[in-house]
Write the structure tokens for this entry.
Amino acid sequence: EDKVVQSPLSLVVHEGDTVTLNCSYEVTNFRSLLWYKQEKKAPTFLFMLTSSGIEKKSGRLSSILDKKELFSILNITATQTGDSAVYLCAVEPPSYDKVIFGPGTSLSVIP
Amino acid sequence: DAMVIQNPRYQVTQFGKPVTLSCSQTLNHNVMYWYQQKSSQAPKLLFHYYDKDFNNEADTPDNFQSRRPNTSFCFLDIRSPGLGDAAMYLCATSLRGWGTDEKLFFGSGTQLSVL
């Protein structure tokens, strides 16, 4: 069965820390891996990754995919309290049927 | 701005009383999805419409139904809500077709409480 696993499930850091969130997947022949940020509302899109080894960056956030080892990481540098959220990893299989979400990592950034 | 809109943001219903959640979109996307998300869990796909074609997930209870009267609107009907149906319900859209990336755009969600 297709599965997406995220670790850690929750994390508390201080402002200014750097965090790394992990996502591994067991999905046959996926098309893309996506990261979403979810505050107390709907998820908002962060990154879509389709190729191994190519880092995507947006400000203090960056992400990279390893298709051989079937995982992705999301890095956040110089964390701020506004980064507190649940970060969801999702994988799109090639069948267009559905996106498979992981359970999310709940990040709390304390001043 | 083009967007996905869900109404209401919060919905309270009674055990067994039918309830309908609404979703509309101005993105002109051809796919609309309904996800159920319980506390600290991943969003779980209930069903989706690809244009007018309805696709139900195998483990979606019969208690949940959906309607898509036109491209812009999609409804989630819960015929007899139970306590276990209390959750956040997320509507999402995507554009499926040649050369598209099918990125999901989410609405703000409806938090359903069942008393």
Chain A is about 0% helix and 55% strand. Residues 92 and 99 of chain A are 5 Å apart (CA to CA). Chain A has a mean pLDDT of 90. Chain A touches chain B at residues 4, 31-32, 34, 36, 41-45, 48, 88, 90, 92, 96-99, 101-104, 106 (CB under 8 Å).
